[in-house]
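A reminder before we start the practical. When you read a complex entry, don't treat the lines as separate problems. The point of joint prediction is that each chain is placed relative to the others, so the output describes one connected object in space. Small molecules and nucleic acid strands, if listed, are placed in the same frame. In the example below there are two entries. Take a minute to note the order of the lines before looking further.
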Amino acid sequence: MSTHLEDLIRQSFNGALPAADRQMLRDLLQQTDNEVLENVLSGIWMEYEGSIPAKTDIDELISGLPIRRNGRVTAIFGRAAKIAASILLLLALGAGLFYYYAGSKKWGLVAASTITIESRNGGATNVKLPDSSLVILRSGATFDYPASFSAGKREVKLNRGEAYFEITKNQQAPFLVTTDWLTIEVLGTTFNVKAYDRSDSVETALVEGAVRITTKGRKPETIVLQPNEKAVYNKTNGKLSISKADMESEIAWMQDTLLFKSTKFSDVIKKLGQKYNTVIKIEGNRYNNDTFTGTLEGENIEVVLSALQLHYHFSYRRSGSMITIQVK
Amino acid sequence: MDDYKIHVTGLRSGSYKDFKALYDLFSDNLYGFVFRLTRSEEMAKDITQETFIKIWLHREKADPDQSFKSFLFKIARNGVIDAMRKQWRNPVFEDYLEHCDAMYTNGEDITQKLDFDYFLRRLQTAKDKLTPRQREIFELRKEQGLSPAQISQRLGINEQTTYNILSAAMQILRKEIGPGGLMLFLLFFD
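Here is the predicted structure of the whole assembly.
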């Protein structure tokens, strides 16, 4: 009985207890004494590495106690506050993004209606899906989506790599992201998925909203994530567990990416110069009135410029810390 | 592995700084654990606070050679078990979970704000829109768990009337609770 109870409690803990089993859990809880419950909960607790910001001011509570404290008091809210800010920043950036930068990407039609995008080195790729949802693929990612979603379902596939999703609400059509190992059903809005081939795990970090993750395979496991948690699927032992997401590092790659929306060519170059700490001069005025919409990401300026060269015709030469762009 | 062992040693000797380091390492983890079990921000917050206050008060009992994580559990467990039992005893808790399912299915935004406490407050406000009779019957059914037959017997009305009043009450509550609450009251007729 206690293994059945444990099963039900685990499912409930994971946010995935089927409605039909709730009555059963309620009844079992009434019949179970504390000792048994303690063992079950202790097991779940020792495995659980997730977290939700507690937002409590422990300093104030402790200082209210009639006990002298030693040591220095440091602000505890620094970290939580920063995470919230980075989420906001992300959303703010996300709102301005609308187009993909096709120049550096390989496009192909796999089936009649499936579009495959491979985000190659040198830049993140923005994809606007048929339902206006936004996907940002990190360089190296490949991603399939249909040219139009069929009624009642929105399904996309991350084949490889890492992607950030902002999903448009649609009550009639659930949004599913599949990977080779698990399926993520989007219940809310914003999250990040890592599915690298070389890595032995698949990670989903939730920024905002809620996602339900189900593993593939014979004995599927399900977890509903809360914001700031991440689900880690271990490809080797098939276990799905919850751990804490450090949102800042999870989506840092998003912030290393330069985002442009209808930006003048000269301003794009200026921005690159600032980011990579290089003086860049433009020779030739052919692109003076051109605007650029898209994202650029790269370890160094050469990588980014070669991505930009797929879109614009120019050559460049470096002399010392200065780069001269020659528009053809 | 136990890089926090040094903090436990510090805590034992009364260092608030080490206490804070442990708090930073484990409080969000404990909060998340309790929230997942109870779906209540208030309970999660209370238990997290109480646990750490107890740890500070009984800091000499912390043992650097034992897992701090299981020490935390020993201090928190009674509160956690009571809280979890309390939630599941509440007949509306299952309706709340049902409500969450409905929200998920409808693709609504779910945040931690949609916890059980918030749900109960919304239900309470919605109940103000009921007539006294509707409210009485609704509460007998849902909060005291009487069957429609038992309600009819107690109030001396026929069962059909009980059904009709319940059904009218539910329509009002459904409207008040709004989208996402549509499936909420399905459970009310067993």
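Discuss with your neighbour: Chain B is about 70% helix and 0% strand. What might explain this?
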